[in-house]
């Protein structure tokens, strides 16, 4: 009989082996030999700088993510009815927290479990859409905010015993509540258990869930940013700082500032202390990065110049998340393993996201280098 070695294992056997390995083991598996590499299905670990952008098409709730590392968009959902999101037509993305996405449709607020695609509805009461919806994944509570003067807020709690959202608890309607014109491009932010809304000039309103009947309170300070700007985005950092990003026209970065909560004044930030700030979307965030090239940088998507889009499913395996391209989706098969785009480095010619090095006077960069990913630490 012809002698065979490990490199000659049948493809169906290799597929069974791969199903029992963590995602982070697949790149090493693919480097064994060409035959083993051919058995590895393309996937993109979701922990590598995913940024939720917006719905992809008007009237169809395709959820779109962007990764600066891969320089690719990943769309989840679709019109084909193969995902629960196809039933959420016309819904508006409001916020994301953990593996939950909050949408607002004309008839209900929708809590979407991103991995399973399950949708749990919280029917509206009295009126149509909220102006803002924010999901608190620590308290399992959804808040709906009406910004039409005066400011009003309601909340709904998750009933874990029945697996449903309870009815809304709304404020008593009145005409004497606080009046503030919120910034139209930024979402409310949960900071230290309180909800903050930002206005265009830098003022804040605050809501304490423990004092629901009192509603929003307009803070005496800060009264303004103290810096010129065109757009502003509010964000809580991973170090529990309340921060704002001030942008000029055409996406130029003016300043990153944070709230000095002792003085209640905005102060300019000179360094992100090795962290990365993503903004310019409804999901601004500050997070620690293990990539040197991304440290102390602010990233802004260029919405008129999109990179390649991959239609994918968001799959969970052993608490690891990955975008797995659908069979009809095109992807790069020229590399040894598409999971390691350009051998772990983003192509310097293909980037359409502006980045700024904080603390340095420079024009926005559209080209940068990258580092090889350590797939053994997917939760970094």
TrEMBL record:
<feature type="domain" description="KIB1-4 beta-propeller">
    <location>
        <begin position="168"/>
        <end position="300"/>
    </location>
</feature>
<dbReference type="InterPro" id="IPR001810">
    <property type="entry name" value="F-box_dom"/>
</dbReference>
<protein>
    <submittedName>
        <fullName>Uncharacterized protein</fullName>
    </submittedName>
</protein>
<dbReference type="InterPro" id="IPR036047">
    <property type="entry name" value="F-box-like_dom_sf"/>
</dbReference>
<dbReference type="Pfam" id="PF00646">
    <property type="entry name" value="F-box"/>
</dbReference>
<dbReference type="InterPro" id="IPR005174">
    <property type="entry name" value="KIB1-4_b-propeller"/>
</dbReference>
<feature type="domain" description="F-box">
    <location>
        <begin position="6"/>
        <end position="41"/>
    </location>
</feature>
<dbReference type="Pfam" id="PF03478">
    <property type="entry name" value="Beta-prop_KIB1-4"/>
</dbReference>
């Amino acid at each position: 009989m012809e002698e065979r070695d490990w490199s000659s294992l049948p493809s169906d056997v290799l597929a069974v082996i791969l199903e029992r390995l963590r995602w982070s083991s697949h790149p090493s598996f693919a480097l064994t030999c060409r035959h083993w590499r051919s058995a590895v299905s393309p996937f993109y670990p979701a922990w590598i700088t995913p940024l939720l952008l917006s719905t992809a098409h008007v009237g169809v709730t395709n959820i779109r993510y962007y990764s600066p590392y891969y320089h690719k968009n990943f769309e989840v959902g679709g019109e084909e009815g193969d995902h629960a999101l196809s039933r959420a037509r016309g819904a508006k993305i409001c916020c994301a927290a953990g593996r939950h996405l909050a949408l607002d449709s004309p008839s209900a607020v929708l809590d979407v479990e991103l991995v399973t695609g399950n949708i749990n509805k919280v029917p509206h009461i009295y009126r149509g859409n909220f102006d803002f919806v924010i999901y608190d994944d620590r308290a399992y509570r959804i808040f709906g905010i009406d910004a039409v003067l005066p400011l009003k807020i309601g909340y709904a709690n998750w009933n874990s015993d029945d697996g449903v959202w309870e009815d809304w608890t709304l404020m008593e309607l009145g005409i004497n509540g606080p009046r503030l014109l919120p910034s139209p491009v930024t979402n409310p932010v949960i900071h230290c258990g309180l909800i903050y809304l930002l206005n265009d000039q830098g003022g804040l309103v605050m809501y304490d869930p423990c004092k629901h009947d009192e509603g929003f309170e307009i803070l005496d300070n800060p009264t303004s940013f103290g810096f010129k700007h065109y757009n502003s985005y509010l964000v809580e950092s991973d170090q529990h700082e309340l921060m704002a990003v001030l942008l000029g026209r055409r996406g130029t970065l003016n300043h990153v500032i944070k709230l000095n909560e002792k003085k209640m004044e905005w102060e300019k930030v000179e360094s992100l202390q090795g962290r990365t700030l993503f903004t310019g979307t409804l999901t601004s965030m500050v997070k620690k990065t293990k990539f040197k090239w991304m440290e102390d940088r602010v990233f802004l998507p260029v919405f008129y110049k999109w990179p390649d889009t991959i239609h994918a499913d968001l799959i969970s395996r052993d608490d690891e998340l990955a975008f797995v391209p659908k069979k009809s989706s095109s992807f790069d098969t020229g590399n040894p393993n598409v999971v390691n785009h350009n051998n772990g480095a983003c192509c310097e010619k293909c980037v359409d996201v502006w980045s700024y090095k904080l603390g340095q006077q420079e024009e926005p960069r559209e080209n940068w280098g990258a580092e090889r990913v350590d797939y053994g630490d997917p939760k970094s």
